[in-house]
Amino acid sequence: MVALEFELTIRANTETEATRKAQAVNTLLNELTVSDLEMIAHIAKNDKAKLAMARAALRM
Q: Is 45 left (phi over 0), alpha (psi -120 to 50) or beta?
C-alpha cells in the first residue's frame, strides 16, 4: 500500500481540537473501507436522523 499526503483544512476552536480531529480521521481512514467512509459521509451530510441514531448507539 502506498502512503500519500494531502493538505486539509480542519475547522476547530483550537489547534488542540484540530489535532485531535485529524488523529481521529486518520484512524478512520486507515481502518475503514472506501465504501464505509462514503456511506458515513453521506449519512453525516444528508440523513440527520440516522446520524442521531448512530450517535445514540455509540453513546456520543
A: alpha
Helix (H) or strand (E) holding 35: helix 34-46
Is 1's pLDDT higher than 90? no
1: number of CA atoms within 13 Å, CB side? Answer: 3
**22, 10 Cβ separation under 8 angstroms:** yes
Q: Which residue has the cell 484540530?
A: 18
Q: What's the length of the chain?
A: 60
Tell me the pTM: 0.76
User: Considering just the CA atoms, what is the radius of gyration of the chain in Å?
Assistant: 13
